[in-house]
């Protein structure tokens, strides 16, 4: 077995150190080593977006990043979004619009939406739909999700 | 996932020495959007992943209206389409980099990795071919250059030999009155693999009526992306007309040798080559004419 590497990274603003094998993805490190289970494993091959997180300001699929690659980098996950007594405006908008049913895809959608609104605070519906094309939802039919993101944009 | 070792190389000689030493058991890691999936699904045996993203040369993204573009092998798609000058100069490259996967894939995947993965259906390769890109390769015996159309040799196979790695792609500065276009056919709006892809670049005369030169490239209709050389040559010196474009499209169809699979039949793909070649040529011509 390859030696476990020591990795120091910043997760949701806090410096975190962990040991991992090279073959462990960032998603496995988040869930199995750091017990941050917000990012979900759906397809594990980059199609579904359930594991979307923000790495150094860019949206990525955590299943397609190795844990060892995050040395010295900054990771944002769904756990870092809400304040202790206040949801993030995107989370509020998802609730208000009933933009979720089973909830498995929701953390990925919200992180993807956050990356969009960080870069483009006033997207068109077309831009929202294309940006979110890498996030799959089998429950909602997407319309409520798109409306939630547009609502969050106008609320922010 | 299979056990392997990870090394972040910081210089080209270091990466080349590792590749030379480890041979077939080593693989370059750039964006990882193909490689990590292939290793996880046991489609590729890798004992060593050599991460090149800390090497300065593979991160170069440098455009100059005189000398053209140097596109480092690990530059992610999103950096390419975020650059307005590159969008203006090489629109076919932008057509492709904005449709490779979704946002999260474009945050990690690059054109260099798309090229080295050597999928017959790669969206990033036809633009390199029509833009006359040269691939800069480093190896144990120094550097060499290979035209983009000669880089892929079979599905998943390239000209890279033991110890060699892609460093960058060099694209010449666009000629005046030239433009380019890439499109693919997929049954969805986004997030799919090309049933057929077609790219074209054209240079028109000053009056924008006559084609000085053109290049056409095809994806997903042969074991590698194809440069449709004869079809391209037919357009040189021709006035822009439906007849000239139809003739080029027919010549492009003649070199397509597609297979039938779950994405489409050989017959449908051959038909699509004609349709998409016409659209790519007309799209590139329109872009020249729309430019002020």
- Strand tally of chain A, please? 5
Going by CATH, the architecture of the largest domain in chain B would be 2-Layer Sandwich
* Distance between the ends of chain A: 48 Å
State which percent range the strand residues of chain B make up: 25-35%
Shape of chain B: globular
Topology of chain B as a string of helices (H) and strands (E) = EHEHEEEHHHHHHEEEEEEEEEHHH
Reported by name, the CATH topology of the largest domain in chain A is Ubiquitin-like (UB roll)
CATH class of the largest domain in chain B: Alpha Beta
Low-confidence stretches of chain A: none
Strand order of the largest sheet of chain B: 4-5-10-6-7
Sheet with the most strands of chain B? 5 strands, antiparallel
- Global shape of chain A: globular
Rg calc of chain A: 15 Å
How far apart, in Å, are the first and last alpha carbons of chain B? 53 Å
Low-confidence stretches of chain B: none
Give the count of structural domains of chain A: 2
Number of strands of chain B: 14
């Amino acid at each position: 077995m390859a030696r476990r590497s020591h990795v120091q990274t910043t997760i949701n603003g806090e410096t975190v150190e962990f040991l991992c094998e090279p073959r462990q993805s960032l998603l496995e490190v988040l869930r199995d080593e750091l017990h941050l289970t917000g990012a979900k494993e759906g397809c594990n091959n980059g199609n579904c977006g359930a594991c979307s997180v923000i790495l150094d300001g860019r949206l990525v699929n955590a299943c397609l990043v190795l844990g060892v690659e995050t040395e010295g980098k900054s990771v944002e996950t769904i756990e870092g979004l809400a304040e202790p007594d206040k949801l993030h405006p995107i989370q509020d908008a998802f609730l208000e619009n009933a933009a979720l049913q089973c909830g498995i895809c929701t953390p990925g959608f919200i992180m993807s939406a956050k990356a969009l609104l960080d870069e483009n605070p006033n997207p068109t519906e077309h831009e929202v739909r294309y940006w979110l094309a890498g996030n799959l939802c089998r429950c909602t039919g997407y319309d409520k999700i798109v409306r939630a993101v547009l609502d969050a944009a106008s609320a922010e | 996932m299979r056990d392997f070792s990870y090394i972040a190389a910081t210089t080209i000689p270091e990466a080349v020495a590792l590749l030379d030493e480890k041979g077939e058991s080593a693989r370059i890691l750039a964006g990882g959007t193909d490689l990590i999936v292939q290793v996880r699904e046991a489609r590729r045996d890798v004992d060593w992943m050599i991460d090149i993203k800390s090497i300065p040369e593979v991160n170069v993204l440098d455009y100059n209206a005189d000398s053209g573009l140097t596109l480092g092998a690990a530059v992610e798609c999103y950096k390419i389409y975020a650059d307005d000058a590159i969008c203006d100069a090489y629109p076919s490259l932008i057509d492709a980099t904005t449709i490779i996967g979704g946002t999260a894939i474009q945050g990690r995947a690059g054109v260099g990795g798309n090229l080295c993965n050597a999928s017959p259906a790669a969206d990033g390769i036809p633009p390199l071919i029509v833009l006359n890109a040269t691939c800069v390769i480093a190896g144990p015996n120094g550097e060499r250059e290979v035209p983009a159309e000669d880089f892929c040799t079979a599905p998943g196979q390239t000209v890279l030999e033991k110890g060699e790695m892609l460093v960058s792609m060099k694209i010449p500065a666009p000629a005046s009155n030239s433009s380019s276009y890439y499109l693919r056919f997929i049954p969805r709006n986004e997030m799919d693999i090309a049933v057929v892809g077609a790219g074209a670049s054209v240079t028109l005369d000053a009056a924008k009526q006559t084609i000085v030169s053109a290049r056409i490239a095809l994806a997903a209709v042969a074991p590698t992306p194809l440069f449709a050389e004869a079809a391209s040559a037919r357009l040189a010196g021709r006035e822009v007309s439906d007849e000239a474009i139809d003739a080029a499209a027919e010549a492009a169809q003649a070199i397509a040798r597609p297979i039938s699979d779950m994405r489409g039949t050989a017959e449908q793909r051959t038909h699509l080559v004609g349709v998409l070649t016409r659209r790519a040529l007309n799209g590139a011509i329109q872009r020249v004419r729309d430019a002020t």
